[in-house]
Amino acid sequence: MLRTIRPATLLKAFALAAFAFVAAPAAAPAQVVPGPVVYEAATAEEAAEVAGATRVQLPAVGIGLAVIGGGIGIGLIGFAATGAMARQPDVAGQIQTAMIIAAVLIEGATIIGLVFCLIV
To answer: What is the per-residue pLDDT for 42?
Structure first.
């Protein structure tokens, strides 16, 4: 049987994960730097190279977010539709039609997001 997660439990898990993420660097041993660190000023070529790398990496993050969002949306639609079909099997055809239409709309929005990320 499928259990639902209560919002309070989810909030506690998120708070624990955030605390562990913040506290982990404090628990790590300090690193010893052998001598003074000297940073040189970046040349224009190096700055352009870093900007170019960022320009390539940010659309990849956008593509990942679009795909994750679409996957979550379609997963929630499938979850709700199968639950509704289990409760009312006599209207399963209508529920399935509505589910497919909603999934197509989500996929369309995801593909548009992917195209925008690839264009930029």
So the answer is: 65
